[in-house]
Amino acid sequence: MSTTFSSLPVVDVHILKASESTILNTAGHQELGEKLYDAFATVGFAYLIDAPLGFTQDELFELSREFFALPLNQKMKLAKKSFRPSHVNTYRGYFPTQPHLTPDNFKEGFEIGNPTTDHNKRCSTRAQRINLAEPNIWPDAQLFSKQERLEHIYNELQNLAANLLSLLAAPLGKDPEFFSSWLDNSLSTLRLLHYPPVTQATEQGSEQGEHAVRLSCPPHTDSGVLTLLHQDATGGLEVLNAAGEWIQAPYIPGSIVVNVGDLMARVSGSRLKATKHRVRAPPPNPDAADAFGLSVDGEEGSVVYGDFVRKKMATFVEFREESGYETGTTEEM
Q1: InterPro entries recorded for this chain (predicted)?
Q2: pTM score, two decimals?
Q3: Residues 313 and 201 in one domain
Q4: Does residue 198 surpass a pLDDT of 50?
Q5: Which phi-psi region, left, alpha or beta, contains residue 254 (left: φ > 0; alpha: ψ -120 to 50)?
Q6: What is the pLDDT of residues 216-241, one digit of tens each?
Q7: What is the domain count for the chain?
Q8: Is residue 65 a part of any domain in this protein?
Q9: What is the DSSP letter of 79?
Q10: Which residue range(s) make up the domain with 55?
């Protein structure tokens, strides 16, 4: 369990910009490794600032917006087998929102893996449903031309993760190259996520009487080693401390949020903490369809104005589908 922290620590990693190797053993590197260890041992999370990356957050989010702006039928061509049984990709690709199944996990995403992974490597038995070594799947280049750029961003983030792991090796009492083999044919994932505005979501509150909140992603711990998160000004990330309080992790311009996953906690003998976290739902966009995205509060709870009006309109004869006129509809999937 983490400590009763009230904010996430901020760690400056500018020293990594001068490094040419993943073996980092100067006094400055050792000091940075200790700072990271302390952050992960007490909170499990930290902000990284001044990281050695050759892309900006604005560029990354613009790439993400470009992908999610694709028509749904094009994104569904990349859907994983669990969403399109005829597809062969089980681990990489696109997943749509599922508000009817998981109303508190309202997001869509696109995932790619290591561009240089040996894709001839397959699961050892047919019983394993998910092929962790499958190749990436991409949209048509005429619709989305940023494959090469995203692969480059993947490699940069992978190198940053390798440096962080090398720094953590000494405080954990391990050889500096202990984690190197973990990154050969890595199963690391670069995941683009889009959290649409939530109009109806599960509301969760604590037993201590916390006000109910709307969630886009429910409380969880990450499964892997380290997670590097770029968040925008929308925010919504909250981290659970030992007192059972949800601590906001607001956006810091130019920063990367890094946190420990379950596997890293296990390898460290639980010295490093995989801390539970969640994502609050973003508010409805008041610019969408004028005021129809606004949430209106009242004595009987809140309601989204557009949803309320549409429900009421369904009772009006002029808006009923069984009006006697033939209508044509199209469904895009």
Answers
A1: DIOX_N, IPNS-like_FE2OG_OXY, IPNS-like_sf, Iron_ascorbate_oxido_reductase, Oxoglu/Fe-dep_dioxygenase_dom
A2: 0.80
A3: no
A4: yes
A5: left
A6: 888 999 999 999 999 998 889 999 99
A7: 2
A8: yes
A9: B
A10: 10-280
